[in-house]
Amino acid sequence: MAQVLVVDDSSTVRNEVCDFLKANGLQVASAVDGKDGLDKLKSDPAIKLVVSDVNMPNMDGLTMAEKIRGDLKNNAVNIIMLTTENSPSMKERGKAAGIKGWIVKPFNGAAVIGSLKKLVA
Amino acid sequence: MQNEKQLVSKVLVLDEDRTHADSLKAFCEECALIGIRPQQGGTANVMAILKSNVDLGGILLYENYGGQAATGLQLAREIHARRPELPIFLRRDSVSSVAGFAEKDAAMFRCAYTLADLQQLRATLDSSIFSRIYPNDLVRGITEMTRASLATLFRNCEVDVETPYLVKDRIIYGEVFTLVAIESNWCRGYMMLQAAEEAVLGLLRREPGKGEENITFRDLNSVLGEATNLIWGSFKNRYAGQLENKDATQLTQVPIIINHQRRYISFGSEDAQLCLKYTLRQKDCPDALPVPIFQRFVFNLNWSPDEFKENPSVESLVDSGELELF
User: Fold this and answer.
1) Which of B217, B236, B323 to mutate: most A Cβ within 10 Å?
2) Residues in CB range of B314: below 8 A, 6 or more apart
3) Nearest CA to B174 among B191, B200, B192, B196?
4) Which of A55, A85, A101 sits opposite B324 (nearest CB)?
5) What is the pLDDT of residues A62-110, one digit of tens each?
6) Is residue B324 part of a domain?
7) CB pair distance less than 8 Å for A101 and B152
8) Fold of A4-120
9) What is the ipTM, given to two decimal places?
10) Do A105 and B233 touch (CB under 8 A)?
11) In this structure, are B77 and B154 located in the same domain?
């Protein structure tokens, strides 16, 4: 049972974010792409927050977010994108998919941990 | 167009004539060339340099290099056979042409010149090495964003960068390289990062919190992949305009050729590539060997620097790493 699902194809980023969140008292699961993220979310109803990259193989993060709201009809989970992307059009697509927020990489845990904890409360 | 400052390029100087060394050196400085001379003459030595990773823009060769008439010509044949992408500029004693050479031999040289006619050489250098202009703001921005990305991933290291330079050779450095496509409305091509595996693994094993025995080449792959991702993301946010009205299926592509045995990669373009060498030094171990990472930009599919500009929205962006709530 995890509270946060970290979705990123880079093991470097996955490990960094997961380790940081665990060190801050959160229970964390991880997935390697959007498709894997959907599977993990389906199998673990306790997940309250998804922190996801955008550009990933097999299924990108925005498509995953759209499927979470559409196919899974899960409007309860909070979704944050953690990505190098910063284009307004991508953010608009994210907003339309019900994404809660956007973090431009690199990950700065100290700057966002307070907000992330509120999103899993 | 932004301000344009000419980049430097390294040339291998195969010219033993000490009486003209000063004038050749002054000419190189005037032309933004960094001259590299072999420690020892001889074909084997020259070929050993060409096998190493010197990142050359070209070769200045004296026709009698090696001390005898025609030894320079023989050396040129061997260089051209091994590294045909490197332009060879031939210094002759009497005539500024390849007159007297067989057609096949003449084709090896980008030009022939004499010391009395260096302007001809200069014009050919400009057209063959310095033909492509890289805006100063772009080069500075690339170094800034790359240093920041590397510093994020190698927290225990200082990251320095050498003067950017232009290269014509296509030799791959080290054992691992990453490649990412760069797409915008003013440039299209690739960015490469190249590194030696064991040296970078050594850095990763010394990063705080990393178990030395648990770090493998897969961790190295992942870190260099993420460095590439961060740099391309920064580049895109800062410089890349959108590819408007262009269907991805209509965009041109050319084959990329990699020859592992020769450590050779070709993108099909003859233009000089922008090359930057970053050096990572461990903060807590000043005696450790510095670790180089080479970065190359190959804009082989489109290069329109007149349309280069920073994205206007860059100043209003939320700082990297901070959460922008919707």
Assistant:
1) B323
2) B237, B238
3) B196
4) A101
5) 999 999 999 999 999 999 999 998 888 899 999 999 999 999 998 889 9
6) no
7) no
8) Rossmann fold (3.40.50)
9) 0.85
10) yes
11) no
